[in-house]
Amino acid sequence: MATNIGIIIILGLLANYLFKSIRLPGILGMLLAGILIGPYGADLLKPELMRVSSDFRLIALVIILLRAGLGLEKDKLKKVGRTAIKLSFIPGLIEGFTIAFVSMRFLGFGFTEGAILGFIVAAVSPAVVVPRMLHFSEKGIGADKGIPTLILAGSSIDDVFAVTMLTSFLAVYTTASVNVAGQVLTVVSSIVIGISIGVLAGFLLVKSFSNFNMRDTKKVLYILGVAILITAIEDFFSGTFQIAGLLGVMVVGFVILEKTPRAAKRIAEKFGKIWIFAEILLFVLIGAQVNIHLAWDAGLIGALIIMIGLAGRSVGVAFSTAGTDLNLKEQLFCIIAYFPKATVQAAVGAIPLSIGMPEGDLILAIAVLSIIITAPLGAVGISWSSKHLLKRNQSAGC
Which among 357, 320, 354 has a CA at the least distance from the CA of 337? Predict the structure, then answer.
């Protein structure tokens, strides 16, 4: 397995460099490298690595969400709070139900099956979006109106919402009934519990750091360990109640920034260095999960459903940002930034198949196709549109 990790690192670095040299996002090269060496390509990765790849991807995702939290300043978050809340559920809701209705028309799905497909596809990929928004925030791109903070906050909760909606419709499918009020309460409670755990963990870490003198490197390891344990708590209680664990992870970083801003800046820089390795591991392994044969099976109809879903999501983003101080160019950027799919689809795309849904193969195929279409489209779109639609600020504030 160590040899495989070496292959992933070398190919990931080369792919990242080659794609950046032709002015394309490096993550696109890493995704394609993963497809090339994965089980559905040249099959160079050992089965034992693929079995634990979800754990590696989770750790990488935790790292980038901690970085996101360490970059969320309270004043900036207050400025975009109301819009971020709207962005956290309106676009996903419209996209999920748009795909549900379209799949009923094009694929002959029932409404429940269509909604399961819709909310698998609907989740935005924080792995694609968060690193770019952090970069823009550091460079002052779009920062005068808090656009990077807006996308960071909204897209992170978007995932929580999409997964909760998916869980709800899976419950409808398996039990033929659902308590709507109960599901709404589940969404709210999962967010509240996740935030509460993150706040508690953040305060405990800050208190520990003030009582015990330690190097920043050790602080980073403690923070990372606690964040991974938060996701473990989410898994442990998944059969009883839902916890927005990844949201809690981001809150840990936010609390540390608020309580110890100077130390948080140094810690964020160290997480940035770790991310160089974690990013390669994450995107190459996501690519390795992509079954291009299944994507081919989804065909043009699958691609059409995905694009119609993106159109619905775009309407949701436009509605959520209407009436704000964002101009049309900046609203268009927000729409493009909400395109990418990857992380959630790779994690949950096979669930319908695993529970015996007759439509499971097709749902998985469309989930895979959504990664192939939207991850490159979103990555390239974010890179291009940031140069043409956003302003670079001279001031550090927003």
Answer: 320
Query: What is the torsional sign of CA 76, 81, 82, 87?
Result: positive
For the chain, which residues score pLDDT lower than 70? 176-184, 394-398
Tokens of 59: 């750790």
Residue with tokens 């809150």: 251
What type of residue sits at position 216?
D
pTM for the whole structure: 0.81
> H or E segment at 318?
helix 292-321
What is the rounded distance in angstroms from the CA atom of residue 41 to the CA atom of residue 54?
19
> What is the per-residue pLDDT across 4-61, written as a single tens digit (0 to 9) for each?
999 999 999 999 999 989 888 888 899 899 999 999 889 999 999 988 888 888 898 8
Q: Which residue has the tokens 């749902």?
A: 363
Structure tokens at 205: 């870490």
Q: What share of the chain is helix, strand, coil (3-state, %, to 5)?
A: 80, 0, 20
CA dist 172 and 170 (Å) reads: 5
In terms of C-beta density within 10 A (0-12 exposed, 13-18 middle, 19 or more buried), how is residue 325 classed? exposed
| Alpha carbon distance 157, 122 (integer Å) | 12
User: Could you give the CA distance from residue 350 to residue 368 in angstroms, rounded to a whole number?
Assistant: 10
How is residue 239 annotated by DSSP? T
Span 312-326, pLDDT tens digits: 999 999 999 999 999
